[in-house]
Amino acid sequence: MALAACAGPLFRQAPTVGDPVAAVTAKMGQPTAVYPAPDGQIFEYATGPMGQFTFMARIGADGRLQSYEQVLTGEKFATIKIDRATKEDVLRTIGRPAERSRIALRNYEVWSYRYKEAGVWNSLMHVHFDQNGIVRQMLNGPDPLFEVRDRDPF
Q: Does the predicted model carry a pTM greater than 0.70?
């Protein structure tokens, strides 16, 4: 299993802007998802559900790589517009969530993303969608997966 983890996007040679799709998949493997974009498509390379990184390769209409970036960052989360962004917008921006849950009181679906806040703190970003699939709020906090549970409180 440890060898399989080494084969993930973190340990492969990153593609170069201008690479054709065949070179991107040769370097990165098959994407975990492919999303349509107005000017081409977006290849998702997720390391979840436990990973804190998702890489997006934006492929232009010409079949060449336009950009490649790690998207689970505070800066990228900040680009998601509350009261405007849809589930499809979120998928194209930051990819699939690590976890999905519901909040019955407000009838919200919540997508949670593991990431390193400021590149340091193990965090979860929770994106809340209403019944129409529109982002209504985003909340972040510490990721309980990384909490130390065996500390002596005294």
A: yes
